[in-house]
Amino acid sequence: MKIVKIVGIVFLVYVGIVVAFESLLGYFQPADGNTMVIATTDEDGAKNPRVVAKLESDGKLYVAANHWPRAWYHIVLENPQLEVTIDEVTEDYLAVPVMGAEHDKVNSEHALPLFFRVLTGFPPRYLVRLDPQN
């Protein structure tokens, strides 16, 4: 019975660490040279900016849903038109969900470190290709 309590406590502490880490990332939205801002449009027409990691492969632009909180990803699936700001330049893009071989290739090129995966609670990773709308 004692081991069950210990395992339960360790599990709850781990869940607390994941929730705290994900919450802090969502609140602070750290940005650097490897990030971009995507602005999704919700059903009310409101723009919702989000800092995300910029992934590039074969000259194409991608973004990954790497975390459990991923409302932006579900909004993009419903309304794939979005604005992307890179280096203070904003352009329109069409978000295309990526699966199969393309997903595997981009995912392996931009693999997440084990430490990051542990801190985020091992969420499934979904990729979206951003096609420019000229």
Explained architecture:
The longest helix has 27 residues, at 2-28. It contains four helices and seven strands; from the N terminus they run αββββαββααβ. It is elongated and about 65 Å long. The mean pLDDT is 89. It has one domain: Electron Transport, Fmn-binding Protein, Chain A (Pnp Oxidase, Chain A). It has helices at residues 2-28, 71-78, 100-109, 114-119; strands at residues 35-41, 47-53, 55-57, 60-65, 81-86, 89-98, 126-132. It has a seven-stranded antiparallel beta sheet with strand order 2-1-5-6-7-4-3.
Quick one: CATH superfamily?
A: Electron Transport, Fmn-binding Protein, Chain A
Would you report the number of β strands? 7
The percent range for helix content is 25-40%
Structural class, from secondary structure content? alpha+beta
Strand order of the largest sheet: 2-1-5-6-7-4-3
Q: What gap, in angstroms, lies between the N and C termini?
A: 64 Å
* Overall radius of gyration: 17 Å
Shape: elongated
Q: Uncertain segments of ≥5 residues (pLDDT<50)?
A: none
Second rung of CATH, namely the architecture: Roll
SSE arrangement, N to C: HEEEEHEEHHE
Tell me the layout of helices and strands.
Blueprint: H1 2-28, E1 35-41, E2 47-53, E3 55-57, E4 60-65, H2 71-78, E5 81-86, E6 89-98, H3 100-109, H4 114-119, E7 126-132
Antiparallel strand pairs: 1-2, 1-5, 3-4, 4-7, 5-6, 6-7
Keyword list:
134 residues; alpha+beta; Pnp Oxidase, Chain A; 7-stranded antiparallel β-sheet; 7 strands
Describe what is shown at a glance.
The protein has 4 helices and 7 strands; from the N terminus they run H-E-E-E-E-H-E-E-H-H-E.
